[in-house]
């Protein structure tokens, strides 16, 4: 079967410097791939390049057969790619309701994910509609960042370290939300340092080192290979 997201020979970086040196990645439709790797290997650069924030030097990024490498961010968003960025990017003075209204106005496509459905999935946000971004906990901000991305009805959702800075109980809620959106058919690429979260939600792992994917495995296999985890990630 042809992968829904197919990245081949992706070279990218900043101001002529190379971070991704010919990266290949596949994600099946409706599947969850976790991209793992130590700090600084280029995980955020991968997300930024797929999303069009960083223009690739070379290579191919196809979504459902359509070439997106080098396209503008708005074209990529309309083609069905959504992102939950690292650090959440919630605006301090805007309320939850205002964030959602802006995201709904700017949405790339209509589809199953509307405000009512998202508030059903993320009930805590419904209780905080009148609260400003800077009044939300880290977990609430993360749920808002996810809600904003879902409102765009992406077919491919890129999440950049959604567990960062969250308490373990909230991390498992984030994991449940990711599983639920994937169960509805959305394809997910999850960049994570939290191995437990990655292994509990994804079907496959792709491990990055120095700007390329050096190891791919089904999660169950990676979970039962402590030698691989130590060698590739430096963790037990
Ligand atoms: N905007 C930028 N301009 C120049 N260099 C950058 C920029 N963003 C990242 N880099 C560099 O690119 C390399 C890869 O960074 P990147 O953030 O993609 O890695 P990462 O795997 O996501 O790391 P982390 O896990 O710490 O978030 C690093 O050497 C970093 O310093």
UniProtKB/TrEMBL annotation:
GO terms for molecular function: ATP binding. Keywords: Amino-acid transport, ATP-binding, Nucleotide-binding, Transport. SUPFAM superfamilies: P-loop containing nucleoside triphosphate hydrolases. Coiled coil: none annotated. InterPro entries: AAA+_ATPase, ABC_transporter-like_ATP-bd, ABC_transporter-like_CS, BCAA_Transport_ATP-bd_LivF, P-loop_NTPase. The keyword Transmembrane does not apply. Gene3D superfamilies: P-loop containing nucleotide triphosphate hydrolases. CDD domains: ABC_TM1139_LivF_branched. Residues 5-235 form the ABC transporter domain. SMART domains: AAA (SM00382). Signal peptide: none annotated. Pfam families: ABC_tran (PF00005). It comes from the Bacteria. Belongs to the ABC transporter superfamily. This is ABC transporter ATP-binding protein.
